[in-house]
Amino acid sequence: MASLTCSARPPNAGLTALASKNYIKLEIVDGSWLAVDRAFRPEPAPAPELPLGAPDDEEMQAAWQAWSQSSDRATELRAALQSAMQAGDNSEITRLKLEVGVVLSEHRTVNEEYKRLKAERPDWKTPQRTG
Q1: H or E element: which one contains 119?
Q2: Torsion region of 31: left, alpha or beta (phi above 0 gives left; psi -120 to 50 gives alpha)
Q3: Going edge to edge, which strands form the sheet with 5-7?
Q4: DSSP codes joined into one string, 53-117
Q5: Residue whose C-alpha is closest to residue 106's, from 58, 82, 71
Q6: pLDDT per position as a tens digit, 2-58
Q7: Reduced to 3 states, what is the DSSP secondary structure of residue 120?
């Protein structure tokens, strides 16, 4: 997914005399942007300093993927349980209820871990889910 925001005024619109009439700002999905005017080139924002022991991007990505897969599995089991109930298959209902209990317990653990890591990295942007 990509998005693009264009603006004809520099961020310091109160100081328009500093920017030429050719200024255009292109903003890309991750918040970075390019100024297509050689006369106006603001310094990029410095990368945020992470507190000592905070999870890195790889650890955040892994935690998010574990949460996402766990959530998807719980959704699949819920749909299977609904189908078994509609079909009146009591043995399948019993089996799925047991499996749902296990999966939900695991999902709560994965969810709590993801929330804990996210609290340590409020700057980290959760990827958009597809599908």
Answers
A1: helix 90-120
A2: left
A3: 5-7, 25-27, 33-35
A4: T---HHHHHHHHHHHHHHHHHHHHHHHHHHHHHHHT-HHHHHHHHHHHHHHHHHHHHHHHHHHHH
A5: 71
A6: 445 555 555 555 544 554 555 555 555 555 555 555 555 566 666 667 778 889 989
A7: helix
pTM over 0.70: no
Q: How far apart are CA 54 and CA 120, in angstroms?
A: 6
Structure tokens at 55: 């999870």
Decide if 54 contacts 116 (C-beta within 8 A): no
Tokens 């999902």 sit on residue:
107
What's the full length of the chain, in residues? 131
